[in-house]
Design goal:
The protein is of the alpha/beta class. The chain contains six helices and eleven strands. The chain is 24% helix and 27% strand.
């Protein structure tokens, strides 16, 4: 029988923040989730992208492709602040980035969960707290996922704004971003008790809970 996850931890947009990433991985492992995942955007940041890739591989963290990762691989938008150039990356990092899928799906106690960066196959799409109902219904990337019915939870990042959207049967969980200073950088999703705890790394380098929300 295929494993149905009862709890998973998901790390937000990394953007080269290798020190924070290491702290989050260590802190989340101590909470013993069934698995740890990452919503991508490993590249384009002030720290070591190579170390970030090494950490994700070392701890077998399933990751999806972010828009910044795609830009890096295509050599697009390299005038961005802290843009990662291909010649800065190790062969191991390049191999990881090139192999990243746009989505991954998992069985949970809550139903099917999709991991993506933006919305489904589009890493540039988003669902935002300010979206009106008509904007959600006209979100051409979200609508097919909603119509699919099997997908109960979509877990993403991209906007760096943590929180949960309750969209009838579909729940959208944005886990935040590792590069955030004051808001959530990762989430621990407990499907057994319908609760999501959000965490960040504080100035002292400790992982602390920012808030909790119900699924």
């Amino acid at each position: 029988m295929k494993l149905k996850h009862s709890s998973i931890a998901v790390i937000g947009d990394v953007h080269g923040e290798d020190e924070r990433l290491a702290t989050l991985i260590h802190g989340l492992q101590a909470k013993q989730p069934d698995a740890i995942f990452c919503v991508g955007d490993i590249t384009d940041g002030p720290g070591s992208v190579d170390r970030c890739c090494d950490l994700l591989q070392e701890h077998a963290i399933d990751t999806v492709l972010g828009n910044h990762d795609q830009w890096c691989l295509n050599n697009d938008n390299r005038s961005l602040n802290h843009a990662t150039r291909l010649d800065q990356l190790s062969a191991t990092s390049l191999s990881l980035l090139r192999a990243l899928p746009r989505t991954r799906s998992y069985d949970t106690l809550y139903g099917e969960a999709m991991l993506c960066h933006g919305v489904g196959e589009n890493p540039m799409a988003s669902v935002r707290p300010s979206d009106r109902v008509d904007e959600l219904f006209n979100n051409l990337d979200l609508w097919p996922i909603y119509r699919k019915q099997q997908t109960i939870v979509m877990i993403n990042g991209h906007t760096h704004r943590p929180g949960i959207f309750h969209f009838n049967h579909l729940k959208v969980i944005n886990v935040g971003a590792v590069c955030n200073d004051d808001t959530a950088q990762c989430a621990l999703i407990n499907f057994a008790i319908d609760q999501v705890d959000f965490f960040r790394v504080d100035a002292s380098g400790e992982m602390i809970k920012t808030h909790s929300e119900n699924l």
